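Batch manifest line 442
LIGAND: zinc ion
JOB: complex structure
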Amino acid sequence: MTDPCRPDDADQRPRIGDWKGYGDLADLQDARLAATVAAAARSPFYQRRDGGRLPADRAGLHALALTTKQHLRQAYPFGMLAVDRSRLATYHESSGSGGTPTASYYTETDWADLAERYARKWVGIYPSDTFLVRTPYALMITGHLAQAAARLHGATVVPGDNRTLAMPYSRVVRVLRDLAVTLTWSLPTDTLLWAAAAEAAGHRPDQDFPALRALFVGGEPLSAARRDRIARIWNARVVEEYGATETGSLAGECPYGRLHLWADRNIFEVHDPRSGRTTGHGRGQLVVTPLYREAMPLLRYNIEDDVEVAYEPCECDWWLPTVRVLGRSGFVCRTGAVEITQLGVEELVFGLPAGYGVMFWRARLVGELLRIEIEARERYREAAADELVAAVRRRYGLDAEVSARAPGELVPHALLTAGGDVLKPRGLYGPDEDWDKALQYY
Ligand SMILES: [Zn+2]
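JOB STATUS: finished
ARTIFACT:
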């Protein structure tokens, strides 16, 4: 018997292939809008806003004011809760810096949608897979998302949170090898740290991990050059994922390497903060209206990520808009009319030949000089520095000072080789033991 308090939307949620064109896609969205608005009508936040007036159709939705991160912070913790609290499955907070947190919460029904969306990558997840989840489990959604998707498809999950002392890089390398891990989920940078740790342990990342077939990555801007380098270093596919704790997965990659927005499960818009205009495509901040969400409905939520959305044909026939994630606005430096982005510098660094062994870098703008430090193999250090200076001049018309250092000078060798012994709290000590460690169990 169906429990009226636990509506199961599984049969209503669209699957890729259910629509054959952007017109069909818009029809799917329109058909779901009434249920989305009905869910929002149960949210205290939307009940209060505009005297509880909610849109009846798409034109009404587009006329509604955007929901902002500030609104979410003001609604902390449960001001957006649209179901009985006993129905919540998980509670999360975004990785903001200080201040009032941004809360997100999901029911089991919400979780079914979340897990399906994350698992939609063209590199499938199968029961034969061993999946290392290497993003945080604490408060954020990311680790739980990958875990739920892997479990949905019967894979074996290895929970390897990257924010814990229990899982240092040396242990990641051991797990990748000993367990013959086939899939991983992490920040792109993490895969480079594993590679350096694997080399420090005497392994060749491209040869000694033959089971590894794909690295799922997200959470950071990733240039094509760095992505190609990661794939080459590990001899595995790199598959990009894009999402947020407030929404779950928003886009995934098709077999043709394009990142497609899950527009059958969400309505997407693009907001230009300068003009205040919001359109269906183009460049600006991504605005999302999740269509299958009950615990915390959101109407026109501005994620504030700088993106470019396009509706163009793709060989995959998914009929979903493509998105280019241009990074979060914080990663930009300016001098005069020149705008330098993390992604732009990364592209130049990873444009250096693979043989130079450059995996780690940092840069800062000092006046009109771009100061860059990289780690490179000894015999290529001079060439790497010269070529990077020339590349910066070509790209930005700026002078650069590049210091090519020995491996271990930016990312310490000890970080890559340290073991991880997690202590338990302890009060009683022997006569020769250091009891200053009492209760310090991290
Ligand atoms: Zn495609």
